[in-house]
Each structure stands twice: as C-alpha cells, then as structure tokens.
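FORM 12-B: Structure-to-Sequence Request
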C-alpha cells in the first residue's frame, strides 16, 4: 500500500513519548558497547527524535521490539505533528484501551494504515515484532520500489510477507542468513529495528538527492534539519581560540544545529593548504546535504585569502570602466575560491556610492553611476558563475547613499520610489533579469517602501523596520514587484542595526517571516536554531514558508554541483598551487591596478608632478607601515633614478622640516570607514599650502575613497589608486616615475 507522506516537515523534537515518558533527541545511550554494529543507526534515529530509551542512558538494544514500540517509532518519524493533536475517534482493539501508554501512537498508526490488528479485534501491543512484520510495516510507511539486488530466500516463497521482504531485500535494506534463509518469523531486537528504519530513511534521502526530488528530500528532513539549512553562522572562535580545524566543538555545533552553511573569515585561514583541508573536512562532516561555505572576497579592502590574488577592488575596476576586466576579476576570484572549497562569494557590491560621506561602502562600490555599477556588476557575476561560484550580490535595496554604518547603527534612506527605481534598484533589477541566484539584504530602513516602526529594545525609541525584517521590501518589492526567485540571505545579524534594537530571537523569527531564506551570522546560532524550531512547531512560521526556503537552498546547492563530491583531498591539495595566485591571475591583478590609476589634479591638466633623477623624496603617510610600503615600491620602481628617500608620519616628529628639504613629496591619504567630511583634512591642507608656497613638486596619493578634491583646495598634483594594497600603490608609483600613464576615469562625482 502506497501512502502519501505526511511528514513533510520532519520530526518535531522534544515533545514525544518514550516508553514511559518523552523522547529526547539529545539522549546519549551508554549500553551500546555490545551493539557497535547498530550504534550509528540508533544514534541517527535518536537524533531525529524517533527512537528513545528508558532513561538514564539505557536503550536495551538487545531487547525485543514490541508491536507497540515499532509503530511508535514510525508514528514519531512520519506524523509527529499529529501526535500533538487530539486523537480523532477511538481504536477498536480490545487490548489497547485509552489508558495504554501507546494508545495515541497505535491509534494514529491504524488511522494512517501503518499497522493492522489481528482477527478477533486484538492488536497484541506487547507481542514481539517479527522480521516479516518489520518488512510489512516499513513498506507500508515508505513508497519503495523493487530494487536490483538478488533476494531469493528459500523460506519466503508463498509467505504472506513475501512481497515486502523482496522490496527491502532487493534494495539492500535488510539481509538474510548464510544458509539462504530470511527467517521471516524470527523476532527483531530494538537495535535491529532502529537500524532497519535508519537504512530506509537514508536510502530514500539518497534516492531523492539523486533524482533531485527536493520535496521528497524535505519530507525526510526533521524540522531541526530544515531550519538548520537556513542558518549560516561564523565560526571565528571557539573557547577563546581561533577555529582553523574541525574540532569536536565545531562538530557538535554542525550536528546539533544541522547547519546548512558557514561563513569563513581571515581568522579561520592560515594558508591555502589549511583552508582547503578545513573546507573538505567540513563537507565530510556535513552528511548527505553539503554545506554552503561562503566568504567575503570583494577584492581591495575586503579580502580574506592569504597568498591569493589580491585584486585592486571594485572602485579600481570602476575607474577602468572595462567589463572584460570585471568579468576576468570575477572568474579568477571564483577559480581561487572554488579550489579552496568555497562556494559562495559575498560579492559583488551593487551599492551605488553616491554619498561621499558613506562610512562603510566607499571604494567597495564600482562608483556613483548606476549604469557603470550595473555593467561591471553583471560582468563580475558572470565571471564568478563561470568558475562555479555563487555570487551573493549586496546590499539590497542599496547601501550607497547612507551616512551611518549599519554595523554600528540604523541607516535610513529617505528617497522616494522614483529615485530608488532610477538609481539604487537599477543594478539589482538587471542582476535579477540576468539570473542572479543570491541577494543579500541591507539592515537599512526605506520609509518609501515600508514605514512601519517598532519600539527599540536599546532605548525605547521608535525605530523603523530595516529591509532585512520587512515583508514589504523582501516579498512585496523584491519577489513580487521585481520578480526575484532566488535565495535571499540577510546581512550579518551581529550588526548593531539589528542586534541592538530588535533582540536576536525576535529578529530571526521576523526575518524568516519577511522572506529571508538564510540568516547570516546569528549572534547565538543555537538560540536562533531553537527559535525557528519553536516557531514552526507553534505555527508562528508556516510549514510552507520553511519548505519554500529549504527547497530554494537545495536547488541551488544542486545547481552548483555541491552534492557531487568526487575529488579527494589529495587531488585538491595537488591542484591549488597552480591556481592560487597564479601568473595568469597576477597579470589580471596588475592590469586592473595600472589601468585604474586616475589623475585627480595636475599643473598641466594631464600628468601629475614627476619624480626626477637624483630627487630627495619624502614619503608622508598616516601610518609608518604604509610609508615604508610606498618607499619599498619606489626603490624597486626607480633603480635608475638614484633617489634619496625618507619617510615620515603625518603629525609626528619633524615632518615640516623634512618636507621643506625635499625635492619631491608623496603625501599619502587614506580615508575609509569614516565620514569623509569629518576626516582630518586640516593637516593635509596645511602641508599642501606649505608645499605650494615653496613651489615644490609633490603628489597627493589617494589610497582610499577618492574624495580629497571636495575637501582640499589648490591641490596641484594628485593621483587616485583606490586602495592601499600593493598592486594599487605599485601602479601609482609607476606613474610617478614615468613608467606608466594614468588612464583611469574617476568613477564617482566630486560633490
């Protein structure tokens, strides 16, 4: 008999009967030492909340499983939600009164066709189950077809259970004995029954994966597993130590929360061999559903991979205006991440940095022009996709015109819908039209879309709902109006725009209700996991909402081949040396950096002041380390010029004296992660005025957000390189010594 599966949302944990109490998915058994062969199956079913012991860690694996216990196993697995509701009607079994400890389970099993009684109206709840009945029970519960393995048992011909025994045997789910018998009337132990059930469930899950039947797979996933797919915590530290290996604590986190993904940071990474080993081991630990493993590798100031190709950043690409280079940047980034076992890149940034006072986006953006950001963003996505890495574009609906860092507070964007459609939303619309598969939300309020306010837990003030928690933004705008069908992932829940005002558990619940598929970096992932389990059990979040999110997650994992785990760790480690930081990748890095260099100011309108033969060059920077890096690159680039160099830190030592004696001054400026108008420009203006008064040759070298010309007056020579990383600064130095020309075009407005 084929039954329609009623357990689409798995086993609800922690609320079901054991033999004389309640099942506990966390129960660990201490009496399995003589049943090691069954330990994995018993623990698997216990984790699902399906089987339970007698308390105090006792499972009694060698004890015979009774008919009542057997149907209780199945009802807990298949119909957990029905267990929480009143039983409709009564059983007619003479030996199962309403006071029987398994009355509810037997009644539900009978109602759903899992088990029948005997002639005369009895059920025989305490009778031990036979191997024949086991086959009958399991094939009634699960829609199995006959398999291809030989199963010719000498003692099952003409037996009433011949058909179900054949189905299980031909799929390798039960075996016979060396003498060719099945022994259908032999009793079954509790250990055997748990193992048989675990084999069937795992078999069906694997079949669902192979056929990409995600609805079927979800029907075999517990609520814990489903909501675990929707969590992607960080694992930077455990017990005060950085996490660089899969230790027992991390294993417990993965299994207890059934995690579907993790985000890695530079703290998790020592070198390429270590991170490749780390990600491989993580996927091995994940079980039959692989993990999303993501990272922020935007290039430029946001990078994580030591030894990897250090791309000059998105605004440097914006200065080149070249989609071919942007695609190449995405492709090589994807190739390196893929080689390291990472499958999501939280990039590109599609924010349009139209506000110079933006403290968090700045040069992470391609620029201030919506068309430029759109063109380069699409090209980068295309490159990542070519390397089989998922692009998670950010930060929807747009973080570019803000003056508050959402890591620290709640930004509010007050533009009307017309402006949002023509600027902020433009690159996201184009990305959706071009099939982008993951979009990250912004913790920013957009009153024009959703003007709801709630009382802040921080100070009792009225605060607007950010996009991450807004049903109107995520469902109304993103899904319905913009037609987006891919995954929605939140920005980090550790950011104060969320953490301070809403309380994490409420925010997690609200985000999922609003349309978020994956919660990134919950502050307390165990609490977030339990919050979602409870919300599903209580009906606060409908089953259908979870089902839809998990299905999108599984579909995307399959699309990018995450279920295909053919490569060994040894193969991966052999290949990484030819990929990470390869000569071809470094060539792209260099070309972007060189083509990005932009003249911000020039005496003649074309070239910045040039460094000449024998010059005494003073390098000024806000940090000594930065000055030393520039000095090192200058010496490498100017070996034939016989230069004398000196470094100085702005505002320290005898800076003015050193500058006064110089033939040439490199004045390095780095403004990022602060409001540009509040930066310490006075010190720079004083130096510029002094150099102008002496008619000295100099260049203001912009290493960060290239907005210096808004705040500084009478600058006679200035270059923007859009980053303080070595590729950027080397490219700028080569222009100053005359080896290269500056052909970049400023990608932001100076206003």
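FORM 12-B RESPONSE
SEQUENCE OUT:
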């Amino acid at each position: 008999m084929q039954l329609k599966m009623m357990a689409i949302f798995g086993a609800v944990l922690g609320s079901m009967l054991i033999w004389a109490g309640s099942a506990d998915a966390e129960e660990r058994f201490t009496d399995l030492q003589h049943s090691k062969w069954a330990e994995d199956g018993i623990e698997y079913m216990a984790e699902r909340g399906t089987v339970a012991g007698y308390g105090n860690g006792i499972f009694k694996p060698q004890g015979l499983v009774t008919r009542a216990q057997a149907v209780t196993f199945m009802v807990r697995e298949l119909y957990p939600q029905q267990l929480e509701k009143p039983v409709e009607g009564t059983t007619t079994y003479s030996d199962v009164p309403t006071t029987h400890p398994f009355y509810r389970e037997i009644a539900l099993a009978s109602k759903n066709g899992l088990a029948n009684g005997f002639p005369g109206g009895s059920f025989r709840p305490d009778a031990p189950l036979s191997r024949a009945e086991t086959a009958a029970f399991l094939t009634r519960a699960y829609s199995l077809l006959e398999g291809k393995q030989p199963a010719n048992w000498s003692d099952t011909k003409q037996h009433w259970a011949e058909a179900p025994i054949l189905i299980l045997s031909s799929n390798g789910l039960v075996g016979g004995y060396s003498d060719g018998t099945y022994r259908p009337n032999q009793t079954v132990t509790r250990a055997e029954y748990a193992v048989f059930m675990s084999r069937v469930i795992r078999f069906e899950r694997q079949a669902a994966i192979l056929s990409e039947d995600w609805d079927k797979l979800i029907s075999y996933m517990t609520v814990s597993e489903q909501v675990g797919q929707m969590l992607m915590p960080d694992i930077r530290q455990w017990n005060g130590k950085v996490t660089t290996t899969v230790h027992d604590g991390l294993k417990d986190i993965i299994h207890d929360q059934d995690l579907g993904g993790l985000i890695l940071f530079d703290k998790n990474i020592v070198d390429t061999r270590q991170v490749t080993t780390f990600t491989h081991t993580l996927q091995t630990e994940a079980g039959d559903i692989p993990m999303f493993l993501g990272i922020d590798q935007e290039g430029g100031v946001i990078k994580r991979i030591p030894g990897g190709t250090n791309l000059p950043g998105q605004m440097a690409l914006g200065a080149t205006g070249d989609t071919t280079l942007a695609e190449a940047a995405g492709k090589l980034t994807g190739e390196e991440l893929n080689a390291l076992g990472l499958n999501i890149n939280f990039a590109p940034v599609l924010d349009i940095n139209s506000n110079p006072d933006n403290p968090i986006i700045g040069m992470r953006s391609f620029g201030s022009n919506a068309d430029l950001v759109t063109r380069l963003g699409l090209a980068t996505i295309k490159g990542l996709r070519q390397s089989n890495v998922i692009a998670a574009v950010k930060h929807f609906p747009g973080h570019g015109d803000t003056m508050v860092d959402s890591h620290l507070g709640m930004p509010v964007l007050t533009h009307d819908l017309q402006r949002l459609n023509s600027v902020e939303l433009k690159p996201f619309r184009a990305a959706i039209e071009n099939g982008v598969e993951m979009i990250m939300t912004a913790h920013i309020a957009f009153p024009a879309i959703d003007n709801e306010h709630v009382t802040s837990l921080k100070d009792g003030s009225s605060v607007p709902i950010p996009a991450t928690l807004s049903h109107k933004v995520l469902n109304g705008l993103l899904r319905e109006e913009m037609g987006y069908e891919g995954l929605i992932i939140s920005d980090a829940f550790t950011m104060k725009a969320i953490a301070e005002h809403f309380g994490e558990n409420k925010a997690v619940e609200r985000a999922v209700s609003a349309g978020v598929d994956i919660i990134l970096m919950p502050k307390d992932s165990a609490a977030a996991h339990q919050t979602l389990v409870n919300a599903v059990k209580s009906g606060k979040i409908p089953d259908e909402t979870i089902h839809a999110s998990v299905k999108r997650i599984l579909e995307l994992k399959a699309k990018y081949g995450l279920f295909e785990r053919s490569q060994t760790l040894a193969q991966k480690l052999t290949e990484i040396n030819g990929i990470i930081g390869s000569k071809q990748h470094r060539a792209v890095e260099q070309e972007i950096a060189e083509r990005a260099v932009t003249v911000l100011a020039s005496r003649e309108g074309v070239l910045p002041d040039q460094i000449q033969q024998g010059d005494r060059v003073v390098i000024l920077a806000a940090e000594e380390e930065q000055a030393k890096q520039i000095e090192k690159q200058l010496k490498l680039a100017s070996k034939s010029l016989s230069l004398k160099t000196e470094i100085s830190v702005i505002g320290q030592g005898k800076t003015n004296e050193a500058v006064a004696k110089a033939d040439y001054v490199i004045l390095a400026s780095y403004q990022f992660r602060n409001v540009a108008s509040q930066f310490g420009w006075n010190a720079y203006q004083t130096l510029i005025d002094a150099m102008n008064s002496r008619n000295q040759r100099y260049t203001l070298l912009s290493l960060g957000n290239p907005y210096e010309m808004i705040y500084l007056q009478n600058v006679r020579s200035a270059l923007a390189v859009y980053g303080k990383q070595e590729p950027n600064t080397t490219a700028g130095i080569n222009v100053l010594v005359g080896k290269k020309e500056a052909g970049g075009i400023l990608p932001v407005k100076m206003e």
